[in-house]
């Protein structure tokens, strides 16, 4: 019997056995073991053909019935996949609780073609509900089942993608980056859900930016830029633009950053994507602030804030408050600047956004230190330092130790020396064992 024929017959046998409520052990006898029955059902090709015929006969089947059984099976699978796609759509429409209620009656063994998809959808529903731990458990199950049964429909890569988002939401950037890399490693170009690849790349760039690895993040975007036309998700495309513009600013390439920010702004306007439009305006405002073009910067920030009601997610306000505050310090509007820095801190706290909160606290400390209020700056630096140490933001930690050393220099020799030692230690951690001979000038 040909291998493909054994696989078809095995599937038909499995379906008939299940429909009769029989276990493998119920069919086994002195002529055929449960392990052999399992191998036949899974289409293992080295099984003795006589055993296949014996099992068919024992179930009261004839070989002529197999095509019809398989046809019914394909129709059932097609209907099931459609229903599961509607369930996924409901999750995307922010109805995760209703979805979980609908899925209570869905129970497949791990060998079922859609077993990994069901686990993935349960994880996705819990992700929407911000129940990170339960989501993580279901994603882990989806990955395990998918790797055993073949990575169909890129469920493995999709689960790694969502696991990265769970970590991101919990401010675990290093773990988020690891999961994004795992998703890219397991992604199969021919297995469906092609959009997942570009979201993984987008997330990788964002995580690198949050970790202060600007050059690495920029390289990730540069490598994929020529394939942007293959990305079907407009939000992902727009995030590519905003992240590239922000990374270019942070690496000092201001003019090039403005070009990408303007292109992204126009794309967001055309597609009426208000969240990304808000981001682009904030980035353009920050770029113009860096160039000393304060009037342009203020127009960008004020336009962004005027559109905040359309964004429906005020997490994005943190950056705008920070940069508008920085602009006001340049314009010597100190009181307005301080109010905005405090608003940025409050907003980051509200959304438990550790990277942005670390930055907002540091900027507030800088504002006070530069205003000759070093004593008042210290608590902000110390709080930012605690966050940086908790979430392993090594570059931020290094900068904060340096700023604390500036505050202590003329007031507390012991703390000053302690800060200098900490600067040295974090610098060693950042180098991570690199040989100095490779260091560029």
From TrEMBL:
<dbReference type="InterPro" id="IPR001387">
    <property type="entry name" value="Cro/C1-type_HTH"/>
</dbReference>
<dbReference type="GO" id="GO:0005737">
    <property type="term" value="C:cytoplasm"/>
</dbReference>
<keyword id="KW-0677">Repeat</keyword>
<dbReference type="Pfam" id="PF01381">
    <property type="entry name" value="HTH_3"/>
</dbReference>
<dbReference type="Pfam" id="PF13181">
    <property type="entry name" value="TPR_8"/>
</dbReference>
<dbReference type="InterPro" id="IPR051476">
    <property type="entry name" value="Bac_ResReg_Asp_Phosphatase"/>
</dbReference>
<dbReference type="InterPro" id="IPR010982">
    <property type="entry name" value="Lambda_DNA-bd_dom_sf"/>
</dbReference>
<feature type="domain" description="HTH cro/C1-type">
    <location>
        <begin position="13"/>
        <end position="66"/>
    </location>
</feature>
<keyword id="KW-0802">TPR repeat</keyword>
<feature type="repeat" description="TPR">
    <location>
        <begin position="116"/>
        <end position="149"/>
    </location>
</feature>
<comment type="similarity">
    <text>Belongs to the Rap family.</text>
</comment>
<dbReference type="GO" id="GO:0003677">
    <property type="term" value="F:DNA binding"/>
</dbReference>
<keyword id="KW-0963">Cytoplasm</keyword>
<dbReference type="InterPro" id="IPR011990">
    <property type="entry name" value="TPR-like_helical_dom_sf"/>
</dbReference>
<dbReference type="Pfam" id="PF13424">
    <property type="entry name" value="TPR_12"/>
</dbReference>
<dbReference type="InterPro" id="IPR019734">
    <property type="entry name" value="TPR_rpt"/>
</dbReference>
<protein>
    <submittedName>
        <fullName>Tetratricopeptide repeat-containing protein</fullName>
    </submittedName>
</protein>
């Amino acid at each position: 019997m040909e291998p493909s024929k054994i696989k078809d017959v095995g599937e038909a046998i499995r379906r008939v056995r299940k429909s009769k409520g029989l276990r493998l052990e119920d069919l086994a006898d002195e002529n055929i073991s449960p392990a052999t029955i399992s191998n036949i059902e899974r289409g293992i090709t080295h099984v003795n053909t006589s055993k296949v015929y014996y099992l068919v006969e024992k179930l009261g089947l004839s070989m002529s019935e197999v095509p019809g059984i398989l046809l019914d099976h394909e129709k059932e699978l097609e209907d099931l996949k459609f229903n599961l796609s509607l369930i996924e759509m409901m999750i995307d429409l922010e109805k995760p609780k209703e979805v979980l209620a609908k899925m209570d009656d869905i129970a497949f063994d791990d060998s079922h073609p859609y077993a990994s998809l069901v686990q993935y959808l349960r994880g996705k529903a819990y992700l929407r509900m911000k129940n990170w731990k339960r989501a993580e458990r279901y994603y882990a199950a989806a990955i395990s089942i998918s790797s055993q049964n073949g990575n169909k429909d890129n469920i493995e890569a999709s689960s790694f993608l969502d696991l990265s988002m769970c970590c991101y939401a919990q401010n675990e950037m290093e773990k988020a980056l690891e999961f994004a890399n795992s998703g890219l490693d397991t992604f199969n170009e021919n297995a469906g859900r092609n959009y997942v690849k570009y979201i993984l790349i987008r997330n990788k760039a964002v995580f690198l930016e949050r970790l202060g690895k600007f050059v690495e993040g920029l390289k990730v975007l540069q490598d994929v830029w020529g394939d942007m036309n293959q990305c079907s998700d407009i939000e992902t495309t727009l995030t590519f633009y905003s992240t590239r513009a922000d990374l270019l600013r942070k690496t000092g390439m201001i003019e090039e950053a403005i070009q990408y920010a303007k292109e992204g702004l126009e794309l967001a306007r055309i597609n009426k994507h208000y969240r990304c439009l808000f981001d682009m305006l904030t980035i353009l405002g920050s770029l113009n602030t860096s160039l000393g073009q304060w009037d342009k910067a203020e127009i960008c920030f004020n336009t962004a804030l005027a559109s905040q009601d359309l964004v429906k997610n005020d997490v994005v306000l943190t950056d705008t408050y920070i940069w508008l505050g920085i602009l006001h310090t340049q314009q010597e509007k100190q009181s307005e600047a301080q109010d905005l820095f405090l608003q940025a801190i409050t907003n980051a706290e509200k959304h438990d956004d550790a990277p942005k909160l670390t930055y907002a606290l540091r900027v507030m400390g800088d504002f006070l230190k530069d205003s000759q209020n070093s004593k008042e700056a210290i608590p902000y630096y110390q709080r930012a330092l605690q966050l940086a140490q908790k979430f392993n933001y090594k570059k931020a930690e290094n900068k904060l130790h340096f700023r604390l050393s500036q505050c202590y220099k003329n007031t507390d020799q012991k703390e000053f020396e302690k800060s200098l030692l900490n600067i040295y230690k974090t610098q060693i951690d950042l180098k991570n064992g690199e040989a100095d001979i490779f260091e560029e000038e």
